[in-house]
Amino acid sequence: MAAVGRSAPGTRLLLVLLAAPLLHVAVCLEPISMGIAIAAASAITGYMSFPEFYCGRLVECCRVDKPLNSTALQADLKENLFGQHLAQEVIYRAMTGFMSTENPKKPLALSLHGWTGTGKNFVSKMIVENIYELGMQSKFVHLFVSTVHFPHNSLIPLYKDQLQSWIRGNTSRCARSIFIFDEMDKLHPGLIDAIKPFLDYYEHIDGVSYRKAIFIFLSNAGGDLINRQMLDFWNSGKKREDLQLKDMENVLSVGLFNNNNSGFWHSGLIEKNLIDYFVPFLPLEYSHVKKCVLAELRHRGFEEDEELASQVAAEMTYSPKEYKLFSDKGCKTVSAKLSLHL
Ligand SMILES: *[C@@H]1O[C@H](CO)[C@@H](O)[C@H](O)[C@H]1NC(C)=O
Ligand SMILES: *[C@@H]1O[C@H](CO)[C@@H](O)[C@H](O)[C@H]1NC(C)=O
Ligand SMILES: *[C@@H]1O[C@H](CO)[C@@H](O)[C@H](O)[C@H]1NC(C)=O
């Protein structure tokens, strides 16, 4: 019962059984009449759309055919992600493009780069929540953290088999599965190789198609390059918002390619063009940290308090030394710092 498709006959039966008080006559009818009975019952109870009736209420469904609400995603990105105009743009473009393609040629692979606390995890959650209501709790969403899930180098062969069988097993149950790999820069090259075939342009592998799946890779790799570029830009007197994607793209792909520690360079993920989008996360400034504090206050049900926000933002450390421009931990410790004040 783990991954129920939209029209699995078993689900219909389950629905009828669960909705028995409403439709106890329907149980003995044939499937088609049952469908009609349910549609009628749905209409009566105000649930006009059949999948919407049981998906989410009775059982979580694999949302392979559900369109993305791009308006909602855009609003979400605009209102809740601070200081990341490039990431906003790329994520929006990537998600709307991929989700509206009926037969994508490969799964979507996003690689998110930037310093800690700049919003990489936050955006991943946002993407997930715009597809599955249960968000990270959804059984179709799988998070792997390198140091937590794959800590021992001696066990790499085991991890490799496990990881491949999980990706295969979950995707065969639900084509719109989402796999998130955090700390990608700490992931063993052997495991990156293990993921590689799933990202490629195959129609299917052993009967399973991966083309509707979504892979999100998070890493700090390239963070220093992004920050240096941002600092140069600032030093030349330009506005942050004028920084364009092309200013970053080159820096990032060349930098990652040549950097020993990026966890990518030897993997062939870049070389074989298996990553669809590199998403740069810019270092956050004082004003962005302040916005994070205000958002956190709202989230906890408090009034917005400018003074308190300034105070908390000022407690963060900023670099480089001579300018004190970028928050060292982005917005990461905002929540904990705020708790000390409340
Ligand atoms: C999409 O999201 C917007 C904003 O959250 C909402 O107003 C609208 O009803 C949604 N559209 C659909 C089709 O769900
Ligand atoms: C799906 O992935 C999870 C890990 O997120 C794993 O525990 C589970 O066994 C996988 N399911 C299948 C059917 O492979
Ligand atoms: C790669 O690592 C080696 C030793 O760890 C170092 O000497 C070399 O400069 C590094 N190359 C790059 C491009 O970072």
From TrEMBL:
Coiled coil: none annotated. Pfam families: TOR1A_C, Torsin. One of its GO terms (molecular function) is ATP hydrolysis activity. InterPro entries: ClpA/B, P-loop_NTPase, TOR1A_C, Torsin, Torsin_1/2. Keywords: ATP-binding, Endoplasmic reticulum, Glycoprotein, Hydrolase, Membrane, Nucleotide-binding, Nucleus, Signal. One of its GO terms (biological process) is nuclear membrane organization. The keyword Signal applies. It comes from the Eukaryota. Residues 1-28 form the signal peptide. Gene3D superfamilies: P-loop containing nucleotide triphosphate hydrolases. It is found in: Endomembrane system; Endoplasmic reticulum lumen; Nucleus. GO terms for cellular component: endoplasmic reticulum lumen; nuclear envelope. ATP binds at residues 114-121. Residues 284-339 form the Torsin-1A C-terminal domain. PANTHER family: TORSIN, TORSIN-1B. Belongs to the ClpA/ClpB family. Torsin subfamily. This is Torsin. It comes from Eleutherodactylus coqui. The lineage of its organism: Eukaryota, Metazoa, Chordata, Craniata, Vertebrata.
